[in-house]
Write a structure and sequence with these properties.
274 residues; alpha/beta; Calcium-transporting ATPase, cytoplasmic domain N; Rossmann fold; 5-stranded antiparallel β-sheet; 3-stranded parallel β-sheet; disordered C terminus
């Protein structure tokens, strides 16, 4: 978009030898020059160093542009949090779910996003391998881990998690690595997914408890002849009807009636793993 605004009259140069390095950036050749776009590293010219400090103070994500190995520009990237992110994190917290933010962004913007969403644990400057290692570490602590992501950088963590959840608008790599995809890209559907899963699990447990209790009581009675065969057959049919009826109650389950509008503001970022 910046190039199109800068060169409105002429065509943009073709890019060849394009390469994407997950967690680091992209590179390619344009007009005979090697162009790299990625995270700032090493010593920068004074003007760019000043711009980097200003970007970090504003909780923006700095992106460095190099041409033929020399730093030429620094872009500060920032966006608004999705309005439903605030409500989603709050509702997950009330369901007893511990939220952890893992991002490839630098510490300042990551901390600002975590503060806005009231997430206590944040891991910044995470590479794809670092995100996967964090997932394994949490699992070793005994936690059951679900990862929400939408980018190539999230694929390893999505695959390593007990449950990988990809956003519908995410990359094919992330969707392929996930166990569940939110087709509409509605992040608040995470809460509905948790509620439905818990309701389903509760129904399964109730059915198993009823079936176990029924068999514990009726089978011994039938074995010693205290239960008439016709009565036993009727009781078995009634037991099956009760189990099916209990399961059919799930058809009456409904998601949250209306999405909260949340509130805008705060620095850019997304809830979950980025």
């Amino acid at each position: 978009a910046h190039a199109r605004r800068t060169l409105p009259a002429g065509p943009l140069p073709d890019v060849t030898d394009f390469t994407a390095a997950p967690g680091h950036g992209v590179s390619g050749r344009a007009d005979g020059h090697t162009v790299e776009v990625g995270a700032p590293d090493g010593k920068l010219p004074r003007a760019l160093a000043k711009a980097l400090a200003e970007a970090e103070n504003a909780a923006h994500t700095p992106v460095l542009v190099k041409v033929d190995g020399r730093a030429k520009a620094l872009i500060a990237v920032g966006d608004l949090l999705r309005p439903d992110a605030y409500r989603t994190v709050d509702r997950l917290r009330r369901l007893g779910i511990r939220a952890v933010l893992a991002t490839g962004d630098r510490k300042a913007p990551a901390a600002a996003v975590a503060t806005a969403l009231r997430i206590d644990e944040v891991h910044a400057r995470c590479t794809p391998e670092g995100k996967a290692a964090l997932v394994r570490e949490l699992k070793e602590e005994g936690a059951r881990v679900a990862v929400v992501g939408d980018g190539v950088n999230d694929a390893a963590a999505l695959a390593a998690a007990d449950l990988g959840i990809a956003m519908g608008g995410g990359t094919d790599v992330a969707i392929g690595a996930a166990d569940l995809t939110l087709v509409r890209g509605d992040i608040e559907a995470l809460v509905d997914a948790v509620r439905l899963a818990r309701c389903t699990l509760g129904t399964i447990r109730a059915n198993l408890a009823w079936a176990f209790g029924y068999n514990v009581v009726t089978v011994p009675l039938a074995m010693v002849g205290l239960l008439d065969p016709m009565v036993a057959a009727a009781a078995m049919s009634m037991s099956s009807v009760l189990v099916v009826a209990n399961s059919l109650r799930l058809r009456g389950w409904e998601p949250s009636p209306a999405r909260g509008r949340g509130h805008r503001g705060g620095p850019g970022g997304k809830a979950g793993v980025r």
